[in-house]
């Protein structure tokens, strides 16, 4: 017996003893409460969904699709929120969450989009499956009508409307209109709009009051009014029940409507007191616009006269164009009105007791636009537009763009005022140079701006106390002007004017002119003395007057003999110092002849000559300072030039490192001498330096500071030797380089010759390892060598090298050396030649054994020479069946060995010749290959393989009951090859392995045909095939074949109805079961003796016939589909059924009829029927739809609300009618006759 365990009190356990994952703490809201809230939210969400669904039951399809997307999104959001909150017992695993989402998606789809997935639709589908009946249809929800499903059996609509009163608004925008001038052909005559509500006018009466005379003229126009009507026409723009008509106003005046009737002669209401003013369009023109105005800049304003006409007040907009600066273009306005003018559009207007329209007459006023133009340039003034007092705007820019008006542009040319100034520096007067008979100087004038010719005035004043003298004006056609100043004094500009304007005189405006003085020179000389020889030169100081730069010219005489050309030193300063130190001794005289400055040239001077007896100091230098190279043991000479008084002694030094050798050359009498240096005994770098020179005549000695000469001495003479251990081979006609080795210093000059010839060749090299190019065979001998230091020696042991020609590559053309590889070698010992490899000679050709097409063969050749080898050849193919020869050049064959394998062409049947052209190796290129001085040709025959194909590959079809048991035969056609042949044949049967049969010694008949008897009967149902696998001729050539013939043994199918169907209606489906083993099947049937055939789907065994028209349907036979006229079938019992037509109801003859009713009127609704009585039908009265003009419309996008319905039964006639005054649209929804029905009640 178990002992009960006492439970602990719930108060003793904390609430969170079992942990929870809920987002909302259970302490705040416990689990049952959270679940209640969640379930309530879900139920509320689904209730709102159903309410929304009922609300859109009469909406359009777009609203239904939007509802599906909206509520699917809300359901997903609810499930995501539920999963996020983790409410105990409502936490859904991912798989359950997906299942719930799927169920809600299907529910939303059924509610909002799938109309056919509804209870009534499911019921209809079930009836169709059971009885094959699809003729009747019904709505899917509540009282939903079949407006969207109406077809040719429910035709016509009758809409009854109760029409309201019609109104019209004359000039709804309260505009003022203007009539353009008759010359403006592109401007249209104004049209006054009249807006109508719920009706169109049929008659219009209006009046026009003249502004000029005050007379009233009345007019009447009658409809119908179209868009093309001349006076009163309909516009294209329509807005619902509203329409707009325009009244053409071709004359000025006050327009007023008197009466408007619609097409039923009912008055249309409007405001009888309203008037519309049509005035003359405003105009604004520039007077005398064809004349161009000329004005100088800064000379006052420009006045542009403008005449304006129309209804005051005016606003004239004109534009000022600047041709120079587009940024200065401006659009300006001017407002104007006559004095004491008043109109309804101006403040203070009081309507007169007696109608007075004088204010609306055309007024005219002259305006003047004053413009200040200070910037020179070309300006254009043009009136752009004008606006009159009631808002009419005339845009001249658009009129000109349309070619309706000529541009009236007033051109104004503001001329630039010229200016003039002198090109003269007041601090530097212009000087007149006194040369020639009438010396003068030009004072340049700077003329700016303006247009030539220019007239420039100036005055001349000799001194400050003299009166100014007015000079003759200077006239210049361009801006290059000048004043010719022939007198010293002050020249001042007084004025300037050009072709149009007077100008300004700018600074500097005056210029001083003086006479330039001749230059002079003053000479002072000083002797230059030496402590040993005495006077060695003279110093000359020259002081100039005049204007620099200066040049002084003098001649030099030695012992009264002129020395060289004239000497002319220059100076930019007024003092010039010359140091004259000749390098020869003697009595020197310097005679100064002329002086030149900036203004005067070669002015003779009277200056005493400078005399001096000069003895120059001794000096010496090397004539050519250059670096020298020489060999050890050699001697060199250096050229030295001396100056001073001879004879001389020269002391020079030869320096090598720290070693110095001092040598003196004495009693030198000539100014040019040679220093002969002793032989250099050691290698290295030597330096030769001039130390002192002594003048023996005066006993004076001078230490020299001149550049020394460096001499580089090599260790020994250079050598040269061939690097040629064995004869060097070269191809005939090519050249080869013989390597040599050199010693010494670069560069080298090598001389060599060909033994047996007298020609000596030379070559230079900068490298110790040089190459001597030769192109002839023989023995080459080195003759001499010289480097940059000296001549050298030829090494006796390596001074000769032999060059010989290489042997040309050849091909061994002996029969035993040529191999034909790849043929069969059955029973042939190794080393012997098989018959398939035996090569023979036929005239000049090498004949290779014949091969079968597509065989793998190669030609093996033996070569001599230096690898690699390249063989060039071409092929000539002669087709076996005739035709032109095909000549081609394959890619050259290449081999790195002495054996070359040539691929044999076997891809086509015929004779192939290989013509060998050239052979190349590593030395020679393209050497012709000849055999006994003839072209080498290899030749062989390619045999065509035999082919075997079935004479007829057409598929043969037999029914199961047509099998006779007689053996069949197939015919093969064998071509090509040589008989007798061997055949390999294969037979495939259904569900059995393939069988192969071989036929040998086959000899076709004269037509090439061979009859082969089938070895077995084809009794199984299914597809059999006979094919040729391979055919071989007596030469062993064979080929495969894919030719086959098929035998199809077919079953005999039958057909039975699924259920008895004695009668049916158009639109129903009748189903039959087809029995057989191999679809597709072909069903033969007739409708009222008209025969038809239908091929069923390969996957279907049910034949479905959809009744599309009435008549007697009868199934005649069913068979398998084959490619011949007969078919495999069985005899059938009679299967027939009667198809009746669907009845039709037509309201208003099947058209959309609209009847407009006034009060106390009724409309007659007429319905006609097609079918066999008795009839029964139903209709629904829906809310009528209107357009903007309150006209009924029969749209298909929205389902209108239902306002009622009606039913009629037991109608024996084909026509009936009833009367109604209810507003709405009557639509048929159901029709039934004796046999069939359509729609829903």
UniProtKB/TrEMBL annotation:
Q: Where is the Nucleoporin POM152 N-terminal transmembrane domain?
A: 30-113
So which domain of life are we looking at?
Eukaryota
Molecular function GO labels: structural constituent of nuclear pore
Identify the residues that the record assigns to the Nucleoporin POM152 ninth Ig-like domain, covering every copy. 1053-1127
* Keywords annotated in UniProt: Membrane, Transmembrane, Transmembrane helix
Ranges for domain Nucleoporin POM152 immunoglobulin-like come to 517-619, 858-936
GO cellular component, alphabetical, reads: nuclear pore transmembrane ring
Nucleoporin POM152 first Ig-like domain residues are 167-278
List the transmembrane segments: 36-55, 61-82, 94-114
Query: Which GO biological-process labels does this protein carry?
Result: nuclear pore organization; protein import into nucleus
**Which residues fall in a coiled-coil region?**
none
Asked if the Swiss-Prot or TrEMBL record annotates the protein with the keyword Transmembrane helix, the reply is yes
Q: Where does the Nucleoporin POM152 Ig-like domain start and stop, copy by copy?
A: 417-511, 718-799
Q: Name one Pfam family in it.
A: Ig-like_Pom152_1
Q: Which PANTHER family match?
A: NUCLEOPORIN POM152 (PTHR28206:SF1)
Q: What name does the UniProt record give this protein?
A: Nucleoporin POM152
Show the taxonomic lineage. Answer: Eukaryota, Fungi, Fungi incertae sedis, Mucoromycota, Mortierellomycotina
């Amino acid at each position: 017996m178990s002992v009960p365990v006492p439970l602990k009190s719930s108060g003793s356990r904390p609430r969170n003893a079992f942990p929870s994952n809920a987002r909302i703490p259970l302490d705040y809201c416990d689990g049952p409460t959270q679940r209640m809230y969640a379930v309530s939210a879900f139920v509320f969400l689904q209730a709102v969904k159903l309410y929304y669904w009922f609300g859109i039951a009469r909406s359009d399809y777009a609203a239904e699709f939007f509802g599906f997307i909206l509520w699917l999104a809300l359901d997903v959001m609810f499930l995501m929120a539920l999963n996020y909150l983790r409410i105990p017992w409502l936490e859904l695993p991912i798989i359950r969450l997906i299942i719930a989402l799927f169920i809600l998606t299907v529910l939303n789809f059924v509610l909002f989009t799938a109309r056919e997935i509804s209870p009534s639709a499911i019921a209809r589908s079930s009836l169709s499956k059971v009885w094959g009946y699809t003729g009747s249809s019904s709505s899917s929800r509540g009282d939903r009508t079949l407006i969207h499903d109406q077809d040719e059996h429910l035709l016509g609509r009758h809409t009854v409307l109760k029409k309201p009163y019609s109104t019209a608004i004359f000039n709804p925008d309260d505009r003022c209109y203007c009539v353009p001038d008759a010359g403006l052909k592109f401007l249209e005559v104004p049209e006054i709009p009249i807006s109508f509500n719920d009706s169109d006018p049929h008659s219009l009466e209006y009046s026009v009051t003249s502004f000029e005379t005050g007379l009233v003229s009345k007019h009447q126009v009658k409809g119908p009014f179209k868009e093309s009507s001349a006076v009163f026409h309909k516009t294209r723009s329509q807005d619902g029940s509203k329409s707009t008509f325009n009244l053409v106003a071709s004359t000025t005046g006050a327009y007023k409507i008197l009466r408007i009737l619609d097409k039923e002669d009912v008055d249309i209401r409007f405001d009888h007191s309203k008037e519309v003013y049509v005035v003359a369009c405003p105009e604004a023109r520039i007077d005398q616009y064809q004349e161009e105005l000329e004005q100088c800049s800064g000379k006052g304003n420009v006045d542009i006269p403008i005449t304006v006409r129309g209804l005051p007040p005016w606003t004239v907009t004109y534009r000022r164009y600047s041709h120079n600066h587009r940024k200065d273009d401006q659009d300006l306005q001017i407002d104007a009105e006559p004095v004491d003018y008043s109109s309804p559009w101006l403040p203070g207007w009081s309507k007169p007791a007696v109608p007075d329209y004088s204010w609306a007459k055309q007024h005219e006023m002259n305006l003047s636009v004053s413009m200040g133009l200070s910037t020179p340039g070309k300006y254009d003034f043009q009136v752009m537009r004008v606006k009159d007092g009631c808002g009419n705007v005339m845009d001249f820019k658009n009129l000109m763009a349309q070619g309706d008006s000529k541009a009236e542009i007033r051109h104004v040319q503001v001329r630039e005022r010229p200016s003039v100034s002198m090109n003269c520096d007041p601090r530097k007067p212009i000087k007149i140079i006194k040369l020639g008979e009438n010396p003068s100087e030009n004072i340049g004038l700077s003329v700016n701006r303006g247009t030539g010719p220019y007239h420039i005035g100036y005055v001349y004043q000799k001194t400050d106390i003299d009166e100014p003298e007015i000079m003759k004006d200077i006239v210049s056609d361009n801006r290059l002007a000048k004043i010719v100043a022939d007198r010293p004094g002050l020249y001042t500009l007084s004025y300037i004017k050009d072709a149009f304007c007077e100008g300004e005189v700018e600074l500097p405006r005056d210029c001083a002119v003086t006479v330039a003085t001749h230059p002079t020179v003053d000479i002072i000389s000083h002797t230059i003395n030496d402590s040993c020889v005495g006077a060695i030169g003279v110093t000359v100081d020259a002081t100039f007057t005049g204007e620099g730069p200066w040049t002084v010219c003098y001649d030099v005489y030695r012992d009264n003999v002129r020395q060289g050309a004239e000497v002319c030193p220059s100076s930019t300063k007024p003092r010039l110092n010359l140091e004259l130190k000749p390098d020869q001794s003697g009595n020197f005289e310097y005679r100064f002849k002329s002086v030149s400055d900036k203004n005067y040239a070669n002015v003779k001077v009277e200056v005493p000559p400078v005399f001096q007896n000069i003895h120059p100091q001794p000096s010496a230098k090397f004539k050519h300072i250059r670096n020298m190279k020489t060999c050890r043991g050699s001697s060199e000479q250096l050229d030295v030039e001396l100056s001073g008084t001879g004879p001389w002694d020269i002391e020079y030094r030869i320096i090598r490192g720290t070693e110095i050798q001092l040598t003196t050359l004495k009693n030198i009498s000539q100014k040019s001498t040679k220093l002969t240096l002793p032989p250099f005994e050691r290698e290295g770098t030597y330096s030769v330096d001039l130390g002192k020179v002594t003048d023996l005549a005066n006993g004076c000695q001078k230490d020299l500071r001149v550049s020394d000469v460096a001499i580089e001495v090599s260790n020994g003479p250079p050598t040269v030797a061939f690097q040629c251990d064995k004869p060097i081979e070269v191809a005939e006609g090519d050249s080869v380089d013989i390597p040599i080795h050199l010693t010494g210093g670069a560069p080298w000059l090598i001389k060599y010759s060909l033994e047996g010839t007298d020609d000596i060749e030379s070559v230079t090299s900068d490298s110790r390892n040089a190459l001597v190019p030769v192109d002839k065979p023989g023995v080459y001998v080195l003759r001499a060598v010289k480097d940059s230091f000296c001549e050298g020696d030829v090494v006796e042991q390596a001074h000769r090298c032999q060059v010989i020609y290489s042997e040309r590559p050849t091909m061994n053309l002996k029969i035993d050396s040529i191999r034909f590889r790849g043929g069969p070698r059955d029973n042939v010992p190794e080393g012997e030649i098989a018959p398939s490899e035996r090569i023979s000679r036929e005239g000049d050709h090498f004949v290779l054994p014949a091969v079968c097409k597509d065989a793998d063969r190669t030609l093996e050749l033996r070569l001599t020479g230096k690898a690699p080898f390249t063989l060039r050849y071409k092929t000539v193919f002669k087709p076996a069946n005739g035709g032109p020869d095909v000549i081609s050049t394959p890619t050259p064959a290449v081999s790195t060995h002495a054996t070359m394998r040539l691929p044999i062409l076997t891809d086509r049947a015929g004779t192939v010749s290989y013509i060998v052209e050239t052979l190349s190796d590593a030395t020679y290129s393209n050497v012709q290959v000849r055999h006994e001085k003839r072209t080498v040709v290899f030749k062989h025959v390619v045999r065509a393989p035999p082919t075997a194909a079935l004479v007829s590959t057409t598929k043969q079809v037999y029914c199961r009951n047509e099998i006779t048991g007689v053996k069949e035969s197939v015919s093969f056609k064998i071509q090509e090859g040589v008989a007798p042949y061997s055949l390999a044949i294969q037979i495939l049967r259904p569900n059995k392995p393939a069988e192969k049969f071989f036929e040998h010694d086959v000899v076709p008949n004269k037509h090439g045909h061979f009859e082969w008897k089938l070895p077995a009967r084809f009794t199984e149902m299914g597809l059999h095939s006979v094919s040729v696998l391979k055919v071989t001729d007596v030469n062993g050539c064979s080929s495969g074949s894919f030719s086959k013939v098929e035998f199809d043994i077919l079953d005999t199918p039958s057909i039975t109805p699924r259920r008895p169907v004695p009668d049916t209606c158009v639109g129903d489906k009748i189903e039959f079961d087809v029995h057989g083993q191999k679809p597709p099947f072909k069903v033969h049937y007739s409708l009222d003796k008209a025969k038809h055939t239908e091929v069923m789907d390969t996957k279907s065994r049910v034949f479905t016939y959809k009744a599309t028209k009435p008549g007697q349907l009868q199934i005649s036979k069913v068979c398998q589909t084959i490619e011949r006229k007969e078919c495999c079938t069985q005899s059938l019992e009679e299967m027939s059924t009667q198809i009746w037509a669907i009845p039709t109801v037509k309201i208003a003859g099947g058209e959309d009829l609209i009847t407009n009713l006034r009060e106390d009127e009724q409309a007659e609704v007429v319905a006609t029927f097609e079918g066999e009585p008795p009839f029964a039908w139903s209709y629904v009265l829906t809310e009528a739809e209107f357009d903007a003009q309150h006209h009924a419309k029969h749209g298909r996008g929205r389902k209108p609300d239902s306002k009622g319905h009606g039913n009629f039964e037991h109608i024996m006639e084909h026509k009936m009618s009833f009367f109604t005054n209810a507003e709405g649209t009557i639509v048929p929804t159901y029709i039934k006759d004796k046999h069939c029905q359509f729609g829903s009640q």
